[in-house]
Amino acid sequence: MSRKRKSLPGIVAPNLDESPEEAVETSKSQLKREALLKKDLAAELIGLGNKQFAGAPLDEDLREELRAARKITAHVARKRQLMYVAKKLRQTDTEEIEQYLEHLNNDASQLTARHHRAEAWRDFLIAKGDEGLAEFLDLRPDADRQGLRQLMRKATQEMNKGKPPAAARSLFRMIRELDGATPLPPCP
Questions:
Q1: pTM (predicted TM-score)
Q2: Residue ranges of domains in the chain, CATH in brackets
Q3: Interacting residues of 150 by C-beta distance below 8 A, sequence separation 6+
Q4: Using CA atoms, how far apart are residues 15 and 26, in angstroms rounded to an integer?
Q5: CB proximity list for 157: less than 8 A, separation 6 or greater
Q6: C-alpha to C-alpha distances, 64 to 8, 37, 70, 134, 155, nearest whole angstrom
Q7: What is the pLDDT of residues 50-85, one digit of tens each?
Q8: Does residue 61 contact residue 88 with C-beta atoms inside 8 Å?
């Protein structure tokens, strides 16, 4: 008994206008990798916040399917809807969507870097005292010297007494505002 072999779903039939060397075959493994990437893309789209989701460059049909997936709470049903959205993404050009998500991720990375810089400067100022403040003011002469010094001293007192770090938080906010106007250099 001879079994007939099924053709693999990802192999592209050669175009009659092309020579055999120009025909491109896609392996089954490559198709699976691409499907997994689309599944990850669908999961990322489903996980966006409302504001980011509203700004995403999606066609209306895909947006409706994603809205449905966002509302589903049952695990299996959500997974099934995720797979359906991934299938729809495989059928569309997703370059613009991927660029949008990359832009969102870059913005988040920059915000995180700003927070880390402000935290590092806050810790540096509290640890070094007036010497650290002089270094900071050399870099940012527009900063409020008196306000920074008061917050630094209060933060040190709070830390020594074991109190909640209210002044340290205020110092962080002040440094973050300065960094928002003009980015600070990395802390020494």
A1: 0.53
A2: 28-92 (1.10.60), 108-181 (1.10.60.30)
A3: none
A4: 14
A5: 163, 167
A6: 32, 21, 10, 56, 51
A7: 888 888 898 899 999 999 998 988 999 999 999 999
A8: yes
